[in-house]
Write a structure and sequence with these properties.
The structure holds two protein chains of two kinds. Chain A is 55% helix and 0% strand. Chain A is an all-alpha fold. Chain A starts with 8 loop residues before the first helix and ends in a 9-residue tail after the last helix. Chain B is an alpha/beta fold. Chain B is 52% helix and 13% strand. Chain B has 15 helices and eight strands. In chain B, helix 2 packs across helix 14 and helix 9 runs antiparallel to helix 10. The longest helix of chain B has 22 residues. The chains are: A mainly alpha, B alpha/beta.
Amino acid sequence: MKRVENQDYYQILEVPYNASWGEIQKSYELVKATYSKGALATYSLFDFNERGRILDKIEEAYLVLSHPEKRAKYDRAIAVLLAESADAPLRVETPTAVPPTPPSTVGVMVVPTPVVKAEIKEAMPTDGAISVNVPTHAVENDIVSGKILKGLREEQGITLDEIADKTRININYLEFIEASSYGSLPAPVYIMSYLKQYAKIVGIDSAMLEEYMKGYQRWCDSPKPNVHRR
Amino acid sequence: MAVKQKESASTLSGLFEEIKSAKKEVWAIAGGKGGTGKSFIAANIGVALSKMGKRVLLVDADLGCANLHTFLGVTPVATLSDFINGKIKSIEKVLTPTDLPNLMLVSGACDFLEIANPKHTQKKRLIRHIHDLPFEYIILDLGAGTGFTLLDFFLSADTGILSVLPEPTSIENAYRFIKSAFYRRFKKMAKKPEVKDLVTAAMNEKNELGIRTPHDLLDHVASIDAEMGQKMKEAVLTFSPKVIVNQVRSRDDMTLGFSMRSACAKYFGIKVDYLGYIEYDDYVWMATKKKTPLILERPYASAARCLDRIVSNLINKDELKLDSILKM
């Protein structure tokens, strides 16, 4: 998990990415009370200034996530960044440890605050290229890849082992899903069931799963090179 | 006929044992502060599970101040101290049966002073033997404090559970316990002496390196040894203690677990699950006075129902939902 400064708005408010307005509202009230003056759960861990900073972040996050339009924009921005970060290994957050990469990628660990403050428009291309469907540098082009799922999962600090443990899904299949290795996956009906269970734990919207399945379908339809067996 | 039935039953149970031994779960209950209801919770979770037909072992690992047997109203035939000092070679002989057929107890040591601090090899042997016992659920009732023995027991479990009271003293100690367990684990992982020293230094809250939070520590470790920094970061993901708030009297007390979850995520960077709360209930001390587990004595008391919910969350690896409190 990340330092508060580097958490995205969903992590700040401690809600899943598909949280409803009601969930956001309730969680907002709770975290606000948690970091208020003299609160039982936090007074011994955070000093006055730290609590103040966290409260500022909470307000900032709430302003965006409670506003449907702002939230939609923000969602598109993080979906892109998450897909990129899924490739990179967990990075240690010292400035020196960060390899020199273009600003948008560095942002992955230090995201979205600055991006959103600049109203996303300035930071991102506006011609519809920013959406979940954005081409990642991954294999497939305009669909939700396993990488995005992986990115979302890692954001939540959930390990694959945990999901395998809770759902009793073979961990290899989970890995194949995240690697988008469609060829290694079982029949579509199983994939869908796995995805649903996966999504329930990670907190992913069902629309994203449909997008993922589109990618699978595309792979099914595409001609495959003949495998020569002896 | 009867013999035949018995035979098939025993082969069946043998079969089950094999399957179940693979799915064994060890839960440890700690809390930092004394008097937060660790033994009460351990005893009642054990009873609740055995009522569901699970084979359960309760281990009173509060070496030195054991009294889990009192909650169950049994007198132990032998205790852990007999095993630790070698008087009894096999840990099976230390098992004390209880009134419930599926529930066994390993009673803690309550005599020798040195037993409270067993040697490293004794401790390792004890942990290994306990984990090898053929039960579906093994529940370790740990004592108060943050001693190394206690931390090692806690870290050896599949699930670590913290019992806290909605009071500043208890919360402070719970955080101290989490921090100690966390750093103990880091220290065990660390190979290089300079990394070990760093972890030791970080445990002192006013250290000169300016390490305030676990995040700072991980950054420092990474600057010395990038590989170890990475490993420790991954270890953080798997360290996920659970919290029970005991003796709850108000709605603020109930939401305390969520607030602790938030504080742990933002300060320690770890995911803490809030298993649930236990309402303050006069039937609790009445049952304790009668030396009967609450769940047997008053199964419909509010505290007993809270315990049922906690057990179900534990089994299903679930946690309390914020909605369940706010709707009240």
